[in-house]
Every structure is written in C-alpha cells, then in structure tokens.
Amino acid sequence: MTSIWQDIRYSLRVIAKAPGFAAIAILTLALGIGANTTIFSWINSTLLNPVPGLARPREVVALTLSKPGDNPFPFTYPDLEAMRDGQQSFTGIAACGFAQLSLTGKRKPERVWGMVASANYFDVLGVRPMLGRGFLPVEDERPGGAPVAVISYRLWQTHFGANPNIVGQTIEINQHPYTIVGVTPAVFQGSQTGVRTEIWVPIMMEAQLNPLGDLLHDHHQFWLLGFGRLKPGVVLEQAQEEMTLRLKPEVKNYPEEHKGHDRVTVYPLWRNPFGLNQFLSTLLPALMCIAGLVLLLACVNVANLMLVRSVGRRREIAIRMSLGGSRWRLVRQMLVESLMLALAGGAVALVITFWTQGTLMKFLPVTEDIPLALSIEADRTVLLAALLISVLTGAIFGILPALRCSSVAPVAVLREESGTVSGGLRKARLASGLVVAQISLSLLLLICAGLFIRSFMRAQQINPGFNPHNVLIASYDLFTAGYSDSSGAEFDRQLVAKLEALPGMQSVALSDRVPLAFGGGSTSVKPQGYVSPANESMETQVAIVTPNYFQTMQIPLVKGRDFTLQDTKTSQRAVIVSEAFANRYWPNQEALGKQLNSDFTHEWFTVVGVARDSKVQGLNEKPTPFLYLSLYQVYRPTMIINARVAGDPLAFRKTVEKTVHELNADLVVFDVTTLELREQFASFGQRVAGTFVGAFGLLALALAAVGIYGVTSYTTRQRTHEIGIRVALGATRHDVLRLVLGHGLRLMLAGVGLGLLLSLVLTRFLSSLLLGVTSTDALTFSSVAIVLCAVALFACFLPARWAMRVDPMVALRYE
Fold it and tell me: What is the pTM of this model?
C-alpha cells in the first residue's frame, strides 16, 4: 500500500510538471467519458429503471396482444379475465387503462391524466402507498361499487397542500364524489415510462370515467394494458405460451375481433411498447454505442500524446531501470499516471453529465394532452458507472504506452547520443498506427453523424400529405363536463360556427386525433366483397372529423365529396377512405359506393369520398389504410379544434379559448398549441440522434486533427537533422513539403480506407433509426471522407510549413 501511495504522489508531481499536456488529456478524456455517462444516465433512468418505485422490478413484465415483432395491441377486459383466472405463471396479473378525468367541485374544473386499474394493480407492481392504502379485492367485484381513489404524491402536494390527514377526504371526479384512500410515493409516476399519472380509480368505476360506457362486458373494445409479476423460475417464453393458451376460448368465441391478435407477447418493462420506451429502447442503445466510439477515440488520442511525451522520458526510465527498478514496477507507475488522468477526466465528465442529463426531455414536444415526464438523475448507479468507465479508460489508453516505454534497453539508451532517434522513430511508427486508428474511428463517427443529420433534414422535407403550417389546435372534453351525445353534438356545431365567423379564420374543423402525434384510435373493419386470410388483422386507423376537415388540413379529396352537416345519425352512414385503403381492399374497382362495416357501431358505412394518403404514425411509413368517419354520426366527446388561420396561430389562442368559454364558461380547454409543434413526435428520434451524434462527430473531427498534427509535428522534428542534410544537398522547399505531407497523406489514406470499410459494415445497424436515407448513403460517405481528408491535410501542412523554413546550418547541429 505504501508503494501505491508513492506511485500516486509521484504521478501527481509528473502531471503537474506538464500542465499543458495534462489539461489537453483531461479535457479529451472528460469529453469522451462525459458523452458516455450522459447517455448512460438516460439509459439508467428509462431502461434500467423504467418505472421508479417498484419492488423487485425485474419480476414485473408487460403483456400485449400481439405476436413478437408485430405492432402491440391492448386487451379487452374479458381477455384479461380469461388469462387471469387459474393461470400458473404469475403471482398476479393486473389491468389498467388511461382515463381523461376532470377534477370538479368548488374550484374551476381541471383536467388531469388518470387511470382505471384492477384492485391488485399496486400489489402486482409492488408499490406501497406512502399514506393510506391501495385498492382492496372487494373493490374489484361490483361495477360502480367502489368510488375510491388513490392520488399521486404530486397531486397531494399541489392540490391538497401535503395535508397529512388527506385519507378519508372526498375528491370530485367527473362530477362524482370519490373517497381518497391513499397517496403514492413521490418516486412513482405511473406504470407507463414517461407518462405521469395523477389519479388511480378502481376499474369497476370505468363507466363513470369512460365516454364509451360499460366496457367491462365488451368483447370488441381493446383498451386495457396488462402487467404481471412472474413467479420464481418462470421465463418469458413459458408465460407467453400459457397466456396464449388461456386466451384461446376468447379467440374462438370472438374470431373477427382477434384476427391477427390471437397471441400474447410478454415484454420486460424496459421494452414495454406502451410508453416512451417504444422510442428509447432502440435509440438509446445506439447512442451508447456511438458514445463508446467517442471514448475509444479519446483513448487513442491520449495514448498518442503519452507516446510522444514518453520520448522525453526515455533517459529517466533507463536510469530508473539501471538503478534496479523492474519493468513491472515501471508499468505500474505509468498506469497509475494514466489512472490519475482518467479519474480527473471522469470528475470533469460528471460535471458535464449534471449539466446535460436533463436535455433529453427538451427534445420532447411540450403537450398538456399527454403529460410526458422523465425523471433523469445522476444517482449512485451513474456515479459508479462514471468511476468504472474512468478506470477502464485509464487502463485502455495507458497500457500500450506503459508497455512500450518500459521495453527500452537501459544501456543502449544511456549510450546513444541525444541526437540518435532510432528509439523515437520506433515510437513514431506506433504513434502513426494509432493515428490511422484515430482517423478510421473519426470517419466512422462522422459518417454516423452525417447520416443522422441528413435523416433529420430529410424528415423536414418529407411531404406528410397535409399542411401543418398556420394551424392552431386546442382540445376540450365534453364527457367530463356532463354533456350527453345529443347536447355534445349541438355544442360542437355551435362552436364550429362561432369559430368560422372570427376574423382571420380561414377554415375550422374538429377531429379526435392529430396526424403523426402520439396515440390515435383504430377500428376493425369488414370491407364489402373482401375475403381476408385467416390471420390477417383488419384493424384500421381511424379519425372522427367534422365537415371541412380536409380543407383545413389541406388533404386533397381525389374522388367523391366531403362530409356535410346533413350526415347525421338519421341519414345513411358515410365514410371517407384513403387511397391505400381503396387500393388494398378494392383494387382496380370503383371505391365510391362500396360499403364497409366498423366495430364502432356495427353498422354499414357507404364510401362517399377517397382522400389522398397522408402520414399517420411515422414519417417513414408506407401508405397505410385509413378511415374518416363523421362526428355527427359517430359521436366522441373529446375533440381537437383545428383552426387554419392567417398569421401566427398562437396569436389566436385567447380568441379561441374565449369563444369556447362563451358557450360554457367552466369547460376546460387544454393542449393549446400549433400543429407544427405537435408533429415533433414524428422526428423525436432523428432530432435527438442528429444533435448528439452531430456533436460527437465534431468532437471526433477535432480529435483527429489534433492527433495527426501531433504525430506529424513530432516525426517532423525527429527528422530535422535529415531534413537539414537533404536541403544541404539541394532539396527545395517543395521537396521538403512533399516529404512531410507524403507521410501525413499515407496515414490519412490508410485511416480513411479502414474507416470506410468499418462504416459500410457497422452503419447498417442504424437503418431502423434513419429516415429517408440509407445506411450506405453515397453522398454522406463521400462528403465526410472529403471533409476529413481536408482537415487532415491542413493538420499536416502546419508542421510541413515549419519544416520548409528550417535553416540547414541549424538543422545539421540539431540534437
């Protein structure tokens, strides 16, 4: 232990004697380590700990009604009952579903995001309320018989002043009284990663909270999310098979509803497809791999600096070995020096991490409709990871220089004149090899950055099939305000008429979804004359809209007509289909006049129009079948105002809210924003990757330039004597320039060739994250290679310029 402390003290003295080298090395390492610890802090908070506050979270899994690899699908309540009763794989299976709630009572109504859940919800998740209790088994027995609620810690703080006697008090939800029986811990935000829940109500109260009415006995509406806690020794595949088997009676009794959705898939929580993990489980591991390349590049850069610096310490090392120092002792000493630099870099990296850890949430669009929230903190796990990464980094960049420097022959070093550079040149060859590695890694990182930046740029250029500019959106919910279907439809008509009369309004329509935004409804269809294969899912995305929706969104109607005010519940049911729908189910046929059945109302709808295809859920999706139904025939209480205006949409915000409140002063208007901002969901991954990988690429370019400059400068100065002889024998300045640039050019070409090969092999793993760009995009590859070559040549030119000015007489006397 005493000798270790001696090594540490000596290392600190050696580092202090070269403050310039130490500052460059520590900053380089800090940037490399900081990139990794920042991304790891995101992974730790979203994938390693996707639902904070759970007991033994690795036992908890998410259930979906889909085949592995297919789009996930929720369950009906009878589905979950069939799987739950008598199963052997789980200690319990819980069901839950989101609900848009309105807190009424004495104060002005306020909309919050809530959830209806089975009585065992908190038990299955392993969440113990900090005050009161969760739900009791008896509260899962009788529909409408459990008017109790558990509230979140945040709601307890903001609405009830952290009252310790809150349990037993009454809260009014959707104009119905509920007794508060518990408060969740502060760390628990809900069971869906990134989505904050404020209130939990027993699933038996669903009819009071869901505008679709009684869904507990409905075999057609798929609306519930499932969770289970695995029994000891049970693996995912075993649980999947049992759940699929137990679901078979329900599939047999309702085959049309379960077409394409007849299997159960079990996911670990970090891959739960219902939540932000749908994006993050693919994006963050890819970013971590790219950040690892940045760290490896930083290690190569610092290793090169240490090799160059070690030339000046050759005599010191030879003397120490002559005095009896063993090679292992010298290797350990140099590794301790590397470790001190790495730990210092890790300390600076933690500062960078504390500064950047919250930036992930800044890429998510701000929305009141869905309360997105990620709690990302640099906790003990991140601190431990930073320490481990720092130690590993010190070993990686320190071991090669330590072994190389400790391999000197003391007698040969002490005998050679200071002008003899054979040993230095040998190290220069090793340093040159590291520069080739630097250039290849830099090229790989720059190509990744270029692909993501090009992908983001293409995302802005892709035509989504509608015009998102100059559109204000605002949402309201008539169900929580107590409206019936008839009174709600009349409210909608009056509101549209009043909004259309406002100055500056070009077109106004209502819809129940925003294209390319998070979420959206679907329905199972039976197109006239179409015979579907056995396992083909007939689930189709659908929007419920009012007349003028296509004019407002500027989606062209290629055939037929728009909806009108005459399309009411007493008239023939009308539907407008997308081109993809018509081409899939009625190829080479006239779609107008065809009929289809929807499980919304189990009625037949007649096609009155065909709309141009538009993007539904992603910018990179192929044209997908889509349906538009009239709000005045298929009523929904929660609607979105779409107002195309002349000028800045947000300038009309107060006008729209005032118009709504003229009809109902207490109606909550929420999620008032622009359509452009809401569309940011579609390019979330590209924006995150483009920003951070772009920054990594710039860092890689700078490190490559510094690395090739350092080695070229070092080797040029080592050859000063040779250059002097060449000049004395008649070599011109251009000859010297070719000599120095030739060395740098060979390193550059070798590095670029290796980097292109690595890029062709590795970038294919980024294909799923790219949009409108292939992983082998020729423009990106060629542009990046040219830029890197230009930077590398400039870095070589600086020492070459110095060599051209060498005085032969001075050079011949150079040591």
Answer: 0.82
